[in-house]
Design a protein that fits this description.
about 625 residues; alpha+beta; 4-stranded antiparallel β-sheet; extended
């Protein structure tokens, strides 16, 4: 053992040497023990044993944790569960499969949602409910692998004792769930009614708001998600009160404004003219709209505004002041001897409804006289002269004429009405012309009369009879223009006075005739007629189309049937044909359209005509021979 020599400081009463120095004496001491052993040696025996036991336990715990880490390397700690599904000892991949399999039966069970007296069984598919098994497996794998020694030990001990069970998290398709909640809300909810103002004549009434009720969508969403993640599959949704966006206070200003507006008559002035408008008429102009009220706004945050409906103002004022207005005229096309010219457009003068409404509000709500100056503005035509010039309508593309009997007055009347309805029709580049779409229904109100038409293979009187004369004429015009035909139907019976295989039937609600403008400019349909003929022409920009065609022979001829009717007014053996029969037949017309010598389209128009029976009256009357008279001399 090391010895340490200490030098003591001499006391003043000790003897000194002759030289005056203090004589020293030395003593030897044992040094104190240092380190853990020394620390323990200096402790009481009981405390010393407590420390040794604790240290031993720590060492054993470290050894246990080390062994546990080794045993669970790359796997989820034993004892860990996910929503009751045991995944301890599994790899993350194995855990994903186990979670999917274990949770599937739960998700397949519907959740019953009840609101008021109604209930709905929601399936996972309806709301897009699903579980992220991969995320849950990763969370399970993280048990016992957290930060800090205490956390690691605590989580692993909890797992060994079965206290680590990760709660199930269910996700949904928010759009699908929102749609479901909207349907539930619509079924059981009652929308609040905003305060409003009612005007009847000059009577103005403020209508109070009414609260509504509906589901709390946020709370309902949370409960439904929780139900899908648990064994408790029933959700009871309570309805909450929904206040109106506009209450009485928010509508008060509109009410006061309306009262003032209908407080008396109004005078309109323009130049030296005046028109009086009654308070009742003004009441019909009033309209109301909400301001500051949105779907997400707080109840009662909106307000109501009173204004004048410009459309209602126009409906009243325009006829009243028509003497100072002028109707705008579109630019039109004039056709003569195959040439086309433009009739210039004319501007109009009309009421400026929006400007007038603003002036009226000032006159009706101000403190001065209830007088407003009529606001007028220039009205531009729909088709200006410049627009007409830019349409490129300069050349006649094709024309065709058909004839008819002038003696059938109703039919002639209908043909003229149809021609007038077609005249001036404009077809834009790429546009498709529809006969029925352009003409519209043929009615008595439009002036159409009854005339013979083919219906179900027979000639019967019908409003608009003669329409097929126009249909056939415009089809042949388009045929020779080279423009593409979109839709065409032949008559059910063969009509000899139409071009062979080039007739066209149309009827409202039935067959139509259509063609396409495949040029880069507009096309004009022009018509002309007399008492015995009608002409349809097409005008546009020169296309360069050349048309050749071939008409085949009649095929598939079917003899017409004959129906005899006994007639007691005709002598026996006498036959009179009431309706002449027409044989059935088929024919094909082929059109070849060329441009610059090259074929650009070949069209085949096949017509199949049914046979029409012949009706013959056969006499049955027996005529007795006359007896010669005898003369007595």
């Amino acid at each position: 053992m090391t010895e340490i020599t200490e030098t003591e400081t001499p006391m003043i009463d000790e003897p000194t040497s002759e030289s005056g120095r203090v004589r020293s004496r030395s003593r030897t001491h044992h040094a104190p023990k240092r380190g853990l052993a020394g620390w323990l040696a200096g402790m009481p025996v009981g405390a010393r044993w407590a420390v040794l036991v604790s240290a031993t336990l720590v060492v054993l715990l470290l050894l246990a944790v080390g062994v546990d880490l080794g045993l669970s390397a790359g796997r989820i700690h034993p004892g860990v569960r996910v929503a009751g599904v045991a995944v301890g000892g599994m790899t993350r991949t194995e855990a994903v499969s186990a979670i999917d399999a274990g949770i599937k039966p739960l998700l397949e069970r519907p959740v019953q949602v009840t609101a008021e007296a109604d209930s709905w069984d929601l399936t996972a598919a309806q709301v897009g409910a699903s579980v992220d098994a991969s995320a849950l497996a990763t969370a399970a794998y993280g048990i016992g692998r957290g930060a800090g020694f205490g956390g690691v030990v605590g989580e692993r001990l909890a797992a060994w004792f079965g206290r680590e069970d990760i709660a199930l998290a269910v996700g949904v398709d928010e759009a699908l769930l929102s749609n479901v909640l909207g349907q539930i809300d619509e079924a059981v909810g009652v929308a609040p009614i905003d305060a409003s103002v009612e005007v009847t004549g000059t009577e103005v009434r403020l209508v109070p708001s009414t609260d509504g009720k509906g589901i709390d969508r946020t709370a309902a969403r949370e409960r439904i998600l929780k139900a899908f993640a648990s064994e408790q599959r029933a959700v009871d949704i309570e309805l909450v009160t929904r206040g109106a966006a506009i209450n009485e206070e928010g509508a008060r200003a509109a009410y006061d404004t309306a009262l003032k507006m209908v407080g008396g008559p109004l005078t309109l002035v323009y130049d030296k003219k005046k028109w009086d408008v009654s308070a009742e008429t003004i009441g019909g102009w009033l309209a109301f709209r909400s301001t500051g009220a949105t779907a997400s706004a707080e109840p009662g945050s909106g307000s109501l505004e009173c204004y004048l409906d410009s459309a209602e103002v126009s409906a009243t004022v325009v006829p009243l002041v028509k003497e100072v207005g002028k109707v705008a005229k579109d630019a039109t096309f004039k056709v003569s001897n195959g040439t086309v010219s433009i009739v210039p457009a004319q501007d109009g003068l009309g009421v400026d409804a929006e400007d007038l409404a603003a002036r009226l509000v000032q006159a009706l709500t101000g403190d001065g006289e209830r007088v407003a100056e009529l606001a007028m503005k220039r009205v531009e035509p729909s088709i200006t002269t410049d627009m007409a010039k830019s349409m490129g309508i300069s050349t006649r593309l094709a024309t065709y004429t058909t004839t008819y009997a002038a003696s059938n007055k109703p039919r002639v009347n209908n043909i003229h009405l149809l021609a007038d309805a077609l005249d001036g029709t404009l077809i834009p580049p790429g546009g498709v012309f529809s006969f029925n779409g352009t003409i519209g229904p043929r009615t008595a109100e439009k002036g159409y009369q009854e005339a013979n038409a083919i219906v179900n293979g027979k000639l019967v009187p019908q409003l608009g009879g003669g329409v097929c004369q126009i249909g056939t004429t415009i089809f042949n015009t388009v045929f020779f223009s080279g423009l593409p035909v979109v839709e065409r139907h032949n008559h059910s019976l063969y009509i000899s006075h139409y071009p062979k295989g080039r007739d066209a039937t149309v009827s409202w609600g039935g067959p139509d005739f259509k063609f396409r403008n495949d040029t880069e400019n507009w096309i004009l349909v022009a018509t002309a007629y007399s008492n015995s003929s009608v002409t349809v022409s097409l005008y546009g920009t020169e296309t360069g189309y050349k048309v050749d065609y071939q008409t085949g022979a009649f095929t598939n001829t079917v003899a017409f049937p004959v129906r005899e009717i006994k007639d007691a007014t005709l002598p026996v053996g006498t036959k009179v044909v009431d309706e002449k029969g027409v044989s059935g037949r088929s024919v094909i017309v082929t059109r070849i359209v060329k441009k610059n010598g090259a074929v650009i389209r070949t069209d085949t128009f096949k017509s199949v005509y049914k046979p029409s029976e012949e009706v013959v009256r056969v006499g049955t009357k027996v005529v007795k021979p006359s007896t010669p008279s005898t003369t007595t001399p």
